[in-house]
Every structure is written in structure tokens, then in C-alpha cells.
Amino acid sequence: MNNSMEKLNSWSIRTAESIMQRSPKLHLCNGHNGKWSYDYGVVLRGFENLWRHTGDERYFRYIREQMDHFIGEDGTILGYSQEEYNIDHINNGKLMFALHRETGEEKYRLAADLLREQLEHHPRTSEGAFWHKQIYPYQIWLDGLYMGAPFYLQYQLEYGGGQGLDDVTRQFLLCERHTRDEKTGLLYHAWDEQKVQPWCDPQTGLSPHFWGRSLGWFVMALVDTLELLPNNQADAPELRRMLNDTLTALLPYQDETSGVWYQVVDCGERKGNYLEASASSMIAYAMAKGIRLGALDERWREPLDRTFRGIIEEFVLETKEGWINLNKNCQVAGLGGADQRDGTFAYYISEPIVTNDQKGLGAFLQACVEYELALPNAGVGSEEQGADSRLEEGVRGLGSL
């Protein structure tokens, strides 16, 4: 761990401090009303990454405090129902591994076991891809790859004897096979195997648009999985290829002026579309982490720099208290359900646009940690030169790119 980075006034530290001060209890914020929500896992994975790279135990304590509200001594999870077969409910399980390892408390292992048991019985398509939820039958959503795959892989590596890894990678292969658009290389938000949902094309089963955050979830899932996946795993080269292909497909739609992405990725010129913070942060995270892992080559540094500069300039504002605000987040978007969400352009731009949505803040925090690690001499600076000054100099210097 890099203890010197703890002293540096970086975007990641400023964002984490803002979250802790503004949201001492994540489950009481953003309208969650105490429910077991995947949003917490997005934020807390950022805290876990920051803790690992700073050694600051306050960040680990924050993770533990948030999860201890939900995890009983017997491993039961407050507000969680396995029988819902909701892949979103798996996401927070990623935090159980570090909690169990660091504290030795069995309740975290038992909670991980409970979530893994859901995947044992989770309904699947005819080819073996997990349904997004029981209430969304025969459907693959890009979102679900982030929610389930990295947890599934880490569980198998840590507690499952390294068995069944091909079932994890199969989720990506099937998702790309059925959602990828041959013309653009982009992935549609979702696919219905039965081709009966009101939102899907009756010939292809595909939803009608490329939603920015769903693509963000997908590339985040890829880098998080590649970080854990043994290099000799048969499908590892395919996942690296998939990461390169998906990010390459996104590049033509990076807004030329701002360097970030639109809510509906390929419709930047359409009235009502807007530059969206969570998707842009997720894409930046995937680029930065992909470079660090060696899954992306050095040519990706320039688009990464443009993206990170754009996120800071387009979305980030500092309050009078010194807190970091992340603006222009889509609050939520989905398909079908009780609201009969139809996946049209008009639908995606009609969802509320909010500040400091946890999914966006969490993705931004994760992107900040990875971007700062990618900087020259990251975390090594002297007392006179910290990460924040290097970042500001770097962002200013990007104007000539």
C-alpha cells in the first residue's frame, strides 16, 4: 500500500472525504430508505480501492460501517430476498471478501455464501446467461455483467477452489454475441431471448438504443474481471479483445468539445440529449484500469486524459464547504417493469437528471483512483508536490491535445 498517497490532496481523496461527510449512512441517502441497493457497492468499491492505495484505515472503517447495517452475525442480509433472483443484489457482495479477510469475522463469509447460492439457482437463458431479474425473464442487460460477474469470479477463486471460471467468462461471451451492433460495434442496452418484450425488436430481440451507463457498466465489468482472471484462462484473450473493441467503438462518440459521452451515446445531435456523468466516469475508469493491467496499450492515454479532463470541467463543482459535487447524472434507467419503460430515445432523456447520484459518485471515485495511479510518479511526490497539483497541471496541459 502507498502510505504517501494518504497525504496528497487528490481528487479521489477529496471525493471520498465529501462522501463521508455528506453521507455518513449511505442507506439513508438518495431515497434508498434503508433498502439493500447495489448503489452502495459502486461507492464502496471506490473506497476499497482508495484504502488499498493509501493505507488509510478510515476508508475501510467506512465500508465496514455501511455493510454492518445489513449483515447479521449469522450472515443474513437485511432487506435481501434470494428468491427475487435479482442480479443487482449481488453487487455489494464484492465487499465481503476484504471484510472477511481483514476482520476474520465469519459473518462476511456467510453473507458471500448466501449471495453465491443465489447464482447457483438463478434462472438462465437457454445458453446459460443469467436473467437480469426473475421479473425480467430471458433478458440479458449489460448492467448485469457488472453486478454479478466480478463477484462470481472472486468467490470461485477465493472460496470455490478456482473451479467454474469458464461460466463467468461465458456471461460476457453470450452478452456480446447477442447485444453487439455490427455496424457501430456498440452494445445495445438489453436483449430478450424470447423476443416478446414490448421494448424489443421482434426480429432481433434487441432494445432500440445504446445507453451510456449500460456500456459503462459493461466495460467496468470487463476490467474488474480481467484484474482477477488468471492469464492462462482460455477466455482471457477474448475478454481483452472485447474491452479493446467496445472502447474503440465508443471513441467516435466522445464529444469533440467536452471529451465526455452523451446519455444516448450515438444521438449527440438530438434535442434533449445531454452529456452524462456516470457513463463518462465509468468509461474513464475502464480506460485507466485497462492501461494499468496491460489490457490496453499506451495509445489509450490520450483519450483517457481527454475524458478525465472533460469530467472535471463538465460535471464537477466544489461547494462552499469544500465538498465535491458531481452533476448531470441519470438517476435511473431500465426497460419494461411496472412503468412499462419502452427504451425509446424519449424515455432515456425523460428520466431525472440529478446531482451526486451514488452510482455516478462511486464511478467517479473509482475513476479518480485509477487515473491518479496512471499519472507519472503517482503517489511518490514530495511534500511540495501532491497528486492534486499534478492532476491540475495535467488537466491544464491537456488543452493542447
Could you characterize what this model shows?
The protein has 401 residues and is mainly alpha-helical. It has a single domain (3-162, 173-379), classed as Glycosyltransferase, CATH 1.50.10. The protein has 14 helices and 6 strands. It has helices spanning 11-22, 38-54, 57-68, 96-103, 106-121, 142-158, 165-179, 212-228, 236-250, 277-293, 301-315, 345-350, 358-374, 387-397, and strands spanning 139-141, 190-192, 316-318, 324-326, 329-330, 353-354. The strands form 3 sheets. It has a two-stranded antiparallel sheet with strand order 1-2. It has a two-stranded antiparallel ribbon with strand order 3-4. The chain has a two-stranded antiparallel ribbon with strand order 5-6. Strand 3 and strand 4 form a beta hairpin. Helix 2 (38-54) runs antiparallel to helix 3, helix 6 (142-158) packs parallel to helix 8 (212-228) and helix 8 (212-228) packs parallel to helix 10 (277-293). It is globular and about 50 Å long. Residues 1-8 and 379-401 have low confidence and may be disordered. Keywords: Hydrolase. Residues 380-401 are annotated as: Disordered. One of its GO terms (molecular function) is hydrolase activity. This is Glycosyl hydrolase. It holds the Pfam family Glyco_hydro_88.
